[in-house]
Request: fold
Amino acid sequence: MLIFLVGGSPFTGLWFARTLAMAGHTVVAPLKGARSSYTGLRGERVTQLRAVAEVIEACPFGSPPFIDLANSVTRDLL
Reply:
């Protein structure tokens, strides 16, 4: 199943992404900003997120890039 996960960089989002990936799902996680804009603990979580999900940078929810991405992939769950 392909799952579009909004909010993958907070603690809970990373937990969901890991759990979904371990269950065999493909996770796509759009980020609000560029990878370089995430520092400290959140930056570490984004690094960990990249290990379990396809991370799309600078793609905030509802923005034109987000809508284009959402329309370009066949996802099973948002």
Q: What stands out?
A: The first strand starts at residue 2 and ends at 4. DSSP finds three helices and three strands in the chain. The chain has a mean pLDDT of 94.
